[in-house]
Amino acid sequence: MKIAVMGAGAVGCYYGGMLARAGHAVTLIGRPQHVEAVRRDGLLLDTQSFRTHVPMQASTDASAVAGAGLVLFCVKSTDTESAAMEIRPHLMPDALVITLQNGVDNAERLQALVPQEVAAAVVYVATEMAGPGHVKHHGRGELVIAPSKASEQVAALLAEAGVPTQISDNVIGSLWAKLILNCAYNALSAISQLPYGRVVQGVGVDAVMRDVVEECLAVARAGGVTVPGDTWQAVERIAQTMPSQFSSTAQDLARGKRSEIDHLNGYVMRKGDALGVPAPVNRTLYTLVKLIEDRQAQAPAH
Fold it and tell me: What three-state secondary structure class fits 225?
């Protein structure tokens, strides 16, 4: 199958790389430095079980989605609308677009802008770009995708490529479960610039995380969402399974970039406001990250 990855950062490169390694024609669409490296040397796929260069196509232009039957949509949540408008003129009429993004409302926002079928996915992977064209895999890698006309075929194709994939009728619940993990860890890791294993050892952190989880669950319940599984157990497990991982928000702040905090703790805060459910701890974490972003934005360039 011809596959395009729109927004080939760490997540897009990992899944795109796994599919290309399995023999699919994959085109990565991303930033110039990564594109140049991939065109020159292939993608360096540096996983827990193997390290290899995978030859594949790469482009900086959204028109490279042309001809792809499957588009993995991996841009930052803040770029969902602008990226949707870029790919819309080039999408095949029967393409399936799967959103592999943080936050819970990206598929809805994307579907409002493109006529093709959009399916949400929940991503459980720890990855980072360790350099141009070099994706480093720290753990996990499974996907949960929503039902769609091609979900069965896509799930089989991903599983064959070494990506365990499940189709679920309650993807919104699973997206909320993932959102809650992000709300518990991302801001704290970003503010402290510490990895998960160190964050959880901090004084008072356990109580703050429990408050975040309780607020998120209260907002989800008020919105009619059923969050599957034992949420607190899942939160505790992250620090055990990914102790060396810095959150994507921490990575963004370390690079002086704007983060996705508006679509994490900020989303819970706004949804809580709309539903009359207070979320003061989420509001505080959101506000602190925004203050750091503002300070960095105003800092003189070196």
Answer: coil
Q: In which band, very low, low, confident or very high, does the pLDDT at 302 lie, cut at 50, 70 and 90?
A: low
Task: Pull the structure tokens for residue 302.
Answer: 């070196």
Kindly report the number of other CB atoms within 10 A of residue 61's CB atom: 11
| Contact present, 190 and 289 (Cβ < 8 Å) | yes
Which residues, other chains included, contact 253 with Cβ-Cβ below 8 Å and sequence gap of 6+?
190, 193, 259, 289, 292, 293, 296
Task: Tell me the pairing of strands 51-54 and 43-46.
Answer: antiparallel
The whole-number average pLDDT for the span 181-203 is 98
Specify whether the CB–CB gap between 264 and 190 falls below 8 A. Answer: no
Is 178 catalytic? The answer is: yes
Give the residue carrying structure tokens 């209260």: 218
> What distance in Å separates the CA atoms of residue 158 and residue 13, rounded to the nearest whole number?
14
At residue 22, the pLDDT reads 97
* In contact, 14 and 135? CB cutoff 8 Å: yes
Element at 129 (helix H, strand E) = strand 117-131
Cβ atoms of 151 and 128 within 8 Å: the answer is no
pLDDT (tens digit per residue) in 38-72: 999 999 999 999 999 999 999 999 999 999 999 99
Model confidence pLDDT, tens digit, residues 68-107? 999 999 999 999 999 999 999 999 999 999 999 999 999 9
The helix/strand/coil state of 118 is strand
Selection from 38, 30, 48 nearest residue 162 by Cα:
48
Percent share of the chain, pLDDT over 70: 99
pLDDT of residue 80: 97
Tell me which of 178, 257, 271, 290 is the catalytic residue.
Answer: 178
